[in-house]
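Propose amino acids for all 111 sites.
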């Protein structure tokens, strides 16, 4: 998982997206560079179902047309790779977009 960071268990665990490894040309509509890390909020994890659910909020990011992105990951049996990912994106306009991965040309291990 290139872009995701999960620490499960322990007292100080964290879940975030690390944008340091994203392509340099990933910017917002106003050429605002993504922050280096965005932490997940409203996190739930079900070990039995091997699912992680969390939301990344962007409301304070200037030039971002995305308000939030809600992720639902299902992990492979080894718990080291993502099997599937559903992303629900809420734009500042109120529009909602749903994406499912992997899709053709996209490998779930690339997350």
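Proposal:
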């Amino acid at each position: 998982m290139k872009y995701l960071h999960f620490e499960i268990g322990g007292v100080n665990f964290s879940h975030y997206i690390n944008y340091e490894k994203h392509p340099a040309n990933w910017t917002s509509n106003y050429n605002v560079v993504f922050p280096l890390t965005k932490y997940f909020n409203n996190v739930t994890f079900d070990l039995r179902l091997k699912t992680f659910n969390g939301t990344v909020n962007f409301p304070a990011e200037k030039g971002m047309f995305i308000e939030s992105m809600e992720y639902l990951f299902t992990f492979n049996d080894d718990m080291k790779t993502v099997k599937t990912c559903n992303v629900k994106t809420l734009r500042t306009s109120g529009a909602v977009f749903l994406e499912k991965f992997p899709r053709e040309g996209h490998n779930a291990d690339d997350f």
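The two ends are 5 Å apart (CA to CA). The chain has a mean pLDDT of 75.
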